[in-house]
Amino acid sequence: MALPLMPGNSPNAQLGKERFHKSQHFLVHSGSMVVDLEKPGIGGEPLIGQKKVPKYSVYPKGEARDLPSWVAFDKQTLCFEAYFKEAEFDAKVETYRIRKCKIFFYLEDDTIQVTEVKFKNSGLPQGTLIHRHRIPLPPPNDDQFYNVYHFNINKDIVFYSRTFTVTNCDLFTKNFLSKLGLSVNEPATVPEDPYTNLRQQHEASMNPLRPYERLHPLKQFLENDGKTLRFYCLWDDTDSLFGDQRELVLHYYLADDTVEIIEVIPPNSGRVHVSKFLRRCKLPKNAPVQMKPPGAVTARTVLNVFGSMNEGKHVVLDSCDIGAATDEFYKDSDLAIGKEINVWGRRVLLTDCDEFTKAYYRFKYGREDFTPVQHKAPAAPKPPKPVPPYNGFGSEEDSLGNCQGLMPKPIQKDFRKFMEKDSNGLNSNVLSFKARMITKDPVHRERVFLICYYLSDDSMSVYEQEQKNSGIIAGKFLERQRVKKPGQELFKSELSEYFKAQDLYVGGSICLNGVHFQLVDADDYTLGYMELHSDEFPITNIGTIFSKLRSISEDKQKEVRTFLSNNTPINDGFVPYESFRDLVMGLNCGLTEHEVLALARRYSEHPVHKEDVPLMLAVAQHYLKRNHFEDYNLLSARFVHSDRQKSGRLPVEEVRNICKAFVLPIPESLQEALLTEYTDGGGIDYHALVAGLNWLEHPAPAVMADDILKYEVSARFNGGRSGLRNINCSKLVKEIFSFSPIKGEAEAAAS
């Protein structure tokens, strides 16, 4: 009975295989074609009796990451301590020698290097015994190479017929082998070498026939080269004729304990400038001294010379330097702030030092007192420079610059402030307020103005909004410029004060060139910017507003309870903005209109406003038609080119960038509203957007002037006072006064 043809039941060994190629059996060796007998058979499988030799080591393949070994194990090396015994046949004293060495195994490519520790006067060519390369295993496995699994402590390893015994390894190697799952053996001891011990005993018993003194100035130079202590000094030479106090700078070189002094010559002092007050040398403490005779100052002292001319002369040196002439020189321990040093008969006072010198003495000697010595009289105050009053020509800053020097210089603007506060993308850094004139004239009282304050240069501009049948031409009312505060004298020596951003807030009044304005509203960006930077605009600080509300009397709090109990139960704690404003302003706690607006924005609900898409498209076509924009084919081609997936949709940011590249003559607020309306989960349908904007093929009906102004000026203030609908008064009162608007409690308090 035959078995069904299913996995596991078929004796066919080829079932499930995918590779049936025939391996290449030819290699190029020394420029000629040869046959490689070690190549595998069909599908890369080894032939009968053939062992598969790995091309690379079995380790490493990368640790927890799919990286090549030369990246994962770069600059990582295993270090083993080992020795090998070398037989000596020609020596009489020794029969064998123990030679210590180190074995380095490089994990990145499985190469091995063996170096021998150098010993003095060994007579052997020590150093690198085996250069770095992959070492094959001993025969008969010489077709394979050593890998990390062949190494362990207290184990013999054969490199080219020489047996090395591994005795120990470093901590990194031990941890690495443990992570591989290898059991690291205990360290082994190195056997003693009789000849080496004999040499060491012989050298320890040897004494030099001629005692000598060990001088190692090179160590001090290598450790302190380039390190210099700097002291600021004072030489009081007022006792001499025509003498005065002279400032000096002392440099102490730690490399060789030498001193160099440089004089600080002030300008217009009448002194000739010299390069150095004292050249670099060792400074003796007891100077000036008598000059030493020749041969008195030497590195060695000769005690005697004996011997005849035929036998040769012998020299005996004084190792204790008993007869040598010695002088005391200043060291780094002798220098400190407040001390006097002798500079060849001149008393020099150390008054101060630099930071490196302080750190040096703090680390080496533990000093902490580095109080400088005050030797200079306080500088006399500079006499004030009288500035003539402004004469009316040019700007005040330009006229002041002409009085400060013979060569007039242009006015330096605050470039840092300009770079930080200049418009960047959707962040315009422009504060916009809606204002009205303060006047008794009913015609001018109804005029609406847009006051813009530019944070980059503190300038202001005023635009008048067009009013239907007003008889007044709308447009630019005040050119962008810095505006002076009123009530200042014109011809004066001081600079005038200009309006700042903190002077503009909702409910406040300003006077621009004699015209008084009342700020009645602000756009959403302005209110958000002022609330975000409450440290610059204290009027929007919620903590200050809460403090004013908490300071009201108990009678006012009862009025708040009564108001909430009568209004909030019906609307779930929400009241209209006008009612909320009347309530807060009636508390008489010193809140301004802008503070009430900031408080209402914090506790207001934000309903979703539905835009009229056909009206927005009609207004957009009006702007495009007025500016003669007709490149709709190029705009569509650019959208199609950016759509790599050919899905008919693009992300919002990419559509915005393309519209900016084509410089569409549409107001920014209207453009953002259109992009928002055309955005869904998969992006923007650019075909529908271009079709709606195309006034040549799909013209929209004509629009009224009020609709155009809605997206040109008025739409900027939708997030201001007009955008506030209902205020969560219950949450506000609970956070400030810590009570809930319960009707029963309010009635009990009122009775």
Automatic annotation (TrEMBL):
GO BP annotations of the record are:
regulation of neuron projection development
Give the top-rank taxon of the lineage listed in the UniProt record for this protein: Eukaryota
Task: Fetch the InterPro entries from UniProt.
Answer: DM10_dom (IPR006602), DUF5580_M (IPR049246), EF-hand-dom_pair (IPR011992), EFHC1/EFHC2/EFHB (IPR040193)
Q: Where is the signal peptide?
A: none
Record carries keyword Repeat = yes
Q: What is its main location?
A: cytoplasm
Q: Does the keyword Repeat apply?
A: yes
The UniProt entry, under Pfam families, shows: DM10_dom, DUF5580_M
User: Which compartments is it annotated to reside in?
Assistant: Cytoplasm, Cytoskeleton, Cilium axoneme
Q: Which GO terms describe its cellular component?
A: axoneme; microtubule
Q: Which UniProt keywords apply?
A: Cell projection, Cytoplasm, Cytoskeleton, Repeat
Every DM10 domain range: 74-181, 225-365, 427-534
Q: What does this protein do?
A: Microtubule inner protein (MIP) part of the dynein-decorated doublet microtubules (DMTs) in cilia axoneme, which is required for motile cilia beating.
**Name the UniProt record assigns to this protein:** EF-hand domain-containing family member C2
* Organism of origin: Gambusia affinis
